[in-house]
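Limitations

Structures in this collection are predictions, not experimental determinations, and the ligand pose is part of the prediction. Treat each record accordingly. The example that follows, with tetrahydrodeoxyuridine as the small molecule, is included so readers can see exactly what is and is not provided: the inputs are given verbatim, and the output is the predicted complex.
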Amino acid sequence: MSSQELLDKAREIKEKAYVPYSEFPVGAALLSQSGKIYTGCNIENAAYPVSCCAERVAIFKAISDGESDFTEMAVVADTERPVPPCGSCRQVMSEFFNSDTKINLTNIHNYTKTVTMEELLPFSFNSSDMGDRG
Ligand code: THU
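Predicted complex:
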């Protein structure tokens, strides 16, 4: 599975986005260590805060399927700059990704910026910060 193929999957699922409020579709595709791909699109709600971003839909699908090791994620949106994942998604990504997991962020011009998890969310809160309780 190449990064280009992962991006193609993200583009494909972006068409399924349920975005009657923002009209801003986003697609994400997540590659597991086992070679499986989990895709996600954003799904909005009339009660706006209940909406879920594409990245989290993909991650939650993968986790609920028993996957826990991931190597790469692709995210695509019709943005001018490479689409920056929101803060909530960064925190969820940091729960399940390694610091060197690659995240490829693509814009409307098909330009991709690749960042690692550590670059996307440095100094992140994690279970080790809770000591024995984590
Ligand atoms: N959104 C995502 O799905 N992922 C991102 O990286 C940025 C924002 C969604 C949330 C909402 O449905 C819409 O884009 C506008 O914020």
